[in-house]
Write a structure and sequence with these properties.
single chain, mainly alpha, two-stranded antiparallel sheet, about 55% helix, about 0% strand, transferase, repeat, Geranylgeranyl transferase type II subunit beta
Length: about 350
């Protein structure tokens, strides 16, 4: 897509640079036999930064999904490096964000999404991966990020449901999960990250709604609760057209996804988004966050990053398809619950 070709270049350059850095880090580690001592300050800083990164595998998912939204196919060399890195991050049925880390839920779900985007189901051991995800469920129905954690979170609960759904499985104790998600709703209509503790947030509202949708339990929310939530979501648009995650915050490109996707989950048609939000103003805000060199930043004038590039483009896709319809939309259409382009096998 010529209009967005600079974003495709940005994504390719990000992955190329990232894999070069990881290769350099591997060489540094091998030269020093795993210790930071003796590497020198700059080399030690590089090694410490890369191995401390907790979202490397998710960043690859953000890049691959952004490329799919743009209709761009990454080079064979890059795709091979993605597969090799994914295999290095495997920890039995789980996946880690970095080969030196332990497996965790979000990285495992990112691996599942990457395998779906690459159309490479053989990269996963479905039985072992499902077993790992299920092992992270607490008695109250919620899920945690890693083995040994004790407090559930809406983000992890949605991720577990999504990952299992993509593997063709269903989580255990669905009544408990649905009840836990419903109890995350606050009196203002928004959802927090866990019941009765956290302020409403657009990201947590999305996670709770998407989780309920994937469980076919959206009907468990009351009509009054859905009306309050629609009002709360409708108030997320800021002056200038952007969306914020909670009251009093500035607009940020990533919240275009969390807010619009949550609203779309409540109304399967496209018309509701156009009634709730000024979609042309939102499109203008996201475009103002785009760098001339490619990529999307959180705010106009900031540096772009893969996280905001993906969620900014995903939100822009929802806005385009709602405002213009599929025929004139410039980006592929997103599934608002699975957070993947529609039409993947």
């Amino acid at each position: 897509m010529a209009e967005y070709a600079h974003h495709a270049r940005y994504l390719e350059l990000f992955l190329h640079g990232g894999f070069r850095m990881l290769s350099k880090v591997d060489s540094l580690r091998a030269a020093d036999k795993g210790s930071l001592l003796g590497l020198g300050e700059e080399a030690a800083k590089l090694l410490a930064t890369c191995t401390a990164e907790t979202s490397l595998l998710s960043a690859i998912y953000w890049v691959l999904c952004s490329a799919a939204l743009l209709g761009h196919t990454l080079s064979e060399d890059l795709l091979l490096q993605v597969v090799n890195f994914l295999e290095r991050c495997r920890k039995g049925g789980a996946f880690a964000p970095h080969p030196l880390h332990e497996g965790d839920l979000l990285s495992t779900v990112s691996a599942i999404q990457i395998a779906r985007l690459l159309k490479r189901p053989e990269l996963l051991n479905v039985e072992e991966t499902c077993s790992f995800v299920q092992s992270l469920q607490l008695p109250d129905g919620s899920f945690v990020q890693r083995v040994g954690a004790t407090e559930g979170d809406a983000r992890f609960t949605f991720a577990a449901i999504c990952g299992l759904r993509l593997l063709g499985q269903h989580p255990r104790c669905q009544d408990e999960i649905a009840g836990w998600l419903v109890r995350c709703q606050n009196l203002d209509g928004g959802f927090g990250c866990r019941p009765k503790e956290c302020e409403s947030h657009a990201g947590h509202s999305f996670c709770c709604l998407a989780g309920l949708q994937l469980l076919s339990r959206l009907g468990d929310t009351s009509p009054r609760g859905r009306a309050r939530l629609l009002r709360w979501l409708g108030s997320r648009q800021c002056e200038g057209g952007g969306m914020n995650g909670r009251p009093g915050k500035a607009g940020d490109s990533c919240y275009s996804w969390w807010t619009l996707a949550a609203a779309k989950l409540l109304d399967e048609g496209q018309e509701e988004l156009g009634r709730m939000f000024d979609l042309p103003a939102l499109e203008g805000f996201i475009e103002s966050c785009m760098s001339s060199e490619g990529g999307v930043a959180p705010h106009p004038g900031d540096a772009p990053d893969p996280f905001h590039t993906f969620f900014g483009l995903a939100g822009l896709s929802l806005a385009q398809h709602a405002a213009r319809g599929g025929a004139s939309a410039k980006l592929q259409q997103m599934d608002p619950a699975l957070v993947l382009p529609i039409g993947l096998p």
